[in-house]
C-alpha cells in the first residue's frame, strides 16, 4: 500500500468518503506524496509526453504567436507573459528563443509562471535564462499592463467534481474505501445548486472544475481591464458537456485512477463549453476552439519542419517528420487537443483561428 493510499484510507475511515475532487487534488498535489510533488512526469522516461516535449516546433510557433499578439496590442513597452503550469519550462524556453527574433518583444516581457510544484519550479529555473521571472502558486493580479497567457495541458490537471444524473437530480460521486480498496460511491442526498438534469440526461456524468472556472474568471477579468490574450491548449471536446473523463496515466498507459494515488497522472478532459461560458460573462473576444492540428498548420508548422530538415541528419529528419505527425495528425494529438483564445484590446484577431 502506498503512503498516500494509507493517508486517504484513514481520512475516509475518520470523516467519510472523499469527493472525486478531494481525491484528485491529494493524488496530484499532496505536499509529500502528490504526483507532481514527487515524480518527474514528462518525457520518454516519464509517464506521458506533452506537445512541447515532442518537438521544439511547438514552443517556437507559440513564441511567434506571442510576438504577433504583442504587435496587435500596439507593441507595448512593457507587458506580462504568463504561463500556467509550465512543467519542465520547455515550451517557454522554445518560445523565448523564437521571441528573440524581435529584441523589443523580449525587452518588454516580464515573465510570470504559475506553478505549485517546487520540484518543477527548479526545472523551470534551469530551463529559462530570462532576467525577469516571477513564480506564483495562483494566478496573480497584475496591473502593470497587458498580459499574454499560455496554458498547455494545465486545465486538465485541475481537480474536478463528478455528478451523476438520476431521475431529474444530480448526485455527487465520491470515493470510498471498501473491501480493502478505493471504490466509487454516490451521495444519497441530491445536489441543490446545479440546474437539474432532464430525464433524457439520466445516467450521464457531469464534471465541474471549480479551479478552472476560477482561473477563467481571473484571466477574463484581467484581459478586460488591461488587454491581452490567453491561449489555452488542452484535450477535450469542443461541444460535449457530459461524460466521465476521469483517468490515470502511468508509464504511457491508461490505469485505474483508484489504484495507487500519487503514482500516476490523474486528469479530466477540459470542458471547453464551460470555459467559454465563463469567459462570456466578460466583454472579451473568444476565438475557437479549433483543433491543435489546424492551429499549428495555420501558424506554419510545415514550413518550420521543412526549414529544420534542411540542416538535419537523416535520423533527425525522421524525428522531425514523426513529431510533425504526432502534433498535427487526427490519429494522434491533432484533433483531440483543442486551442481556445480569449482576447481583449487587439487590433486584429489572434493568428491560428478561422475568421
Ligand atoms: C500536464 S503538466 C503540463 C506541463 C507543460 N505545460 C507542458 O506542456 O509540458 C501540468 C502542469 O501544471 C502544474 N499544475 C498542476 N496543478 C496546478 C495548480 N493548481 N496550479 C499551478 N500549477 C499547477 C503542474 O505542476 C505542471 O507543471
From TrEMBL:
InterPro entries in the record: NDUFAF7 (IPR003788), NDUFAF7_sf (IPR038375), SAM-dependent_MTases_sf (IPR029063)
Leader sequence residues: none
This protein's UniProt keywords: Methyltransferase, Transferase
Record has Metal-binding as a keyword: no
GO biological process: one example: methylation
EC nos: 2.1.1.-
Top-level EC class: transferase
Key word Translocase present: no
UniProt-listed Pfam families: Methyltransf_28 (PF02636)
Transmembrane segments: none
UniProt-recorded Gene Ontology molecular function terms: methyltransferase activity
Name the record gives this protein: SAM-dependent methyltransferase
Lineage of producing organism: Bacteria, Pseudomonadati, Pseudomonadota, Alphaproteobacteria, Sneathiellales
Amino acid at each position: 500500500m502506498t503512503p498516500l493510499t494509507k493517508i486517504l484510507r484513514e481520512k475516509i475511515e475518520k470523516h467519510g468518503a472523499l469527493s472525486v475532487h478531494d481525491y484528485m487534488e491529494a493524488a496530484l498535489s499532496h505536499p509529500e506524496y502528490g504526483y507532481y510533488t514527487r515524480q518527474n512526469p514528462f518525457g520518454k522516461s516519464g509517464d506521458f509526453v506533452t506537445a512541447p516535449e515532442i518537438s521544439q516546433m511547438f514552443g517556437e510557433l507559440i513564441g511567434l504567436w506571442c510576438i504577433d499578439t504583442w504587435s496587435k496590442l500596439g507593441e507595448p513597452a512593457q507587458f506580462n507573459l504568463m504561463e500556467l503550469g509550465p512543467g519542465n519550462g520547455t515550451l517557454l524556453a522554445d518560445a523565448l528563443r523564437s521571441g528573440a527574433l524581435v529584441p523589443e518583444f523580449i525587452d518588454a516581457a516580464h515573465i510570470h509562471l504559475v506553478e505549485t510544484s517546487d520540484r518543477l519550479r527548479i526545472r523551470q529555473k534551469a530551463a529559462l535564462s530570462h532576467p525577469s521571472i516571477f513564480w506564483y502558486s495562483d494566478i496573480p493580479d497584475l496591473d502593470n499592463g497587458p498580459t499574454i497567457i499560455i496554458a498547455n495541458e494545465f486545465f486538465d490537471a485541475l481537480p474536478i467534481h463528478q455528478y451523476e444524473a438520476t431521475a431529474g437530480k444530480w448526485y455527487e460521486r465520491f470515493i470510498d474505501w471498501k473491501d480493502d480498496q478505493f471504490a466509487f460511491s454516490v451521495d444519497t442526498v441530491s445536489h441543490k445548486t446545479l440546474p437539474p438534469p432532464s430525464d433524457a440526461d439520466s445516467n450521464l456524468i457531469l464534471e465541474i472544475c471549480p479551479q478552472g472556472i476560477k482561473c477563467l474568471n481571473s484571466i477574463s477579468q484581467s484581459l478586460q481591464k488591461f488587454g491581452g490574450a490567453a491561449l489555452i491548449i488542452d484535450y477535450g471536446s469542443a461541444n460535449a458537456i457530459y461524460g466521465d473523463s476521469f483517468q490515470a496515466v502511468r508509464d504511457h498507459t491508461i490505469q485505474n485512477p483508484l489504484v495507487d494515488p500519487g503514482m500516476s497522472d490523474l486528469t479530466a478532459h477540459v470542458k471547453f463549453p464551460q470555459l467559454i461560458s465563463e469567459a462570456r460573462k466578460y466583454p472579451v473576444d473568444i476565438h475557437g476552439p479549433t483543433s491543435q492540428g489546424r492551429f499549428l498548420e495555420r501558424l506554419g508548422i510545415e514550413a518550420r519542419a521543412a526549414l529544420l530538415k534542411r540542416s538535419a541528419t537523416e535520423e533527425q529528419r525522421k524525428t522531425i517528420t514523426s513529431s510533425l505527425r504526432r502534433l498535427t495528425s487526427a490519429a494522434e494529438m491533432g484533433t483531440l487537443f483543442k486551442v481556445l483564445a480569449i482576447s481583449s484590446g487587439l487590433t486584429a484577431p489572434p493568428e491560428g483561428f478561422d475568421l
